[in-house]
Amino acid sequence: MAPERDEVTGKLTTGHVWDGIQELNTPMPTVVAWLYRLSVVAAVIYWVLMPAWPYVTDYTRGVLGYHQRVSVTNQVSEAKSRRADWEGKLTSMSFVDIKADGPLHEKAITSGKAVFGNNCGVCHGFNAKGQAKFPNLTDKDWLWGGSIEAIEQTIRFGINASHDETRSGAMLAFGKDEVLERPQVKDMIEYVRSLSGAEHDAAGAARAVPLFAENCASCHGEKGRGDYETGAPNLTDQVWLYGSDRETLWQTIYYGRTGVMPHWTERFDTPTIKALAIYVHALGGGESSKN
Questions:
Q1: Model confidence, pTM
Q2: Is residue 95 included in any domain, yes or no?
Q3: What is the number of structural domains in the chain?
Q4: 12 neighbors 5 (Cβ within 8 angstroms)
Q5: Tens of pLDDT along 97-136?
Q6: Is 175 part of a structural domain of the chain?
Q7: Residue 173 falls within a domain, yes or no?
Q8: Mean pLDDT of the chain
């Protein structure tokens, strides 16, 4: 169909018709046309100045010679230079002296918090309150001690980790290894529940008293309050890493437990580890009663 002039708008049509509707031959707005031309010019300028075109194994460098990797490297270097002074102090100063230096202590906590969020929060929770099988770091219940020095050692070398100086500790599989018979495991469950004041069968607990003294007291202590040297938990409080219900205690006593904390000494330098220890200790570190 030949182009016609639309009677309503006075504009020519393109000659295209859809269901009796003719398409107007409306040119691109002048502003849009100029913006398009400017975008083409800007693209050409960028192509000349900046890296833009890939080759098979390389790319054009551009007149400005900009290199993003070099830029990032320089930024990291500048950041390290700004941190060098206070990181040097963290490395050389004792925890007592660091705490006495208010601004330095605050800087360590801020830095440690960032490190914790990026590396530790996935297991301990970003609020550090723990989750199933991962301890709460905001209370006073610490398997290996909650002093800042003990926390630093745990972070640095880990628990049951691959480092030569890692802390080592495990709950034996008393049932699986046939140290205790199944009825004895059931009695032990009742005794362990009794230590923390939980509902229990008194007769079963009484039968387990000599079994506990013979098999468990060497780690957990005669009163079941645990031991920092072996990482044995306090059985007399209400803090249970895996749970205190009978089914969970059966799994713990019969099959054993072996928790793992990775060592960070190969990933973090000394000031980073000390800052992390300071932050974690500030969350709730301390010494609970174990005797």
A1: 0.73
A2: yes
A3: 3
A4: yes
A5: 999 999 999 999 999 999 999 999 999 999 999 988 899 9
A6: no
A7: no
A8: 92
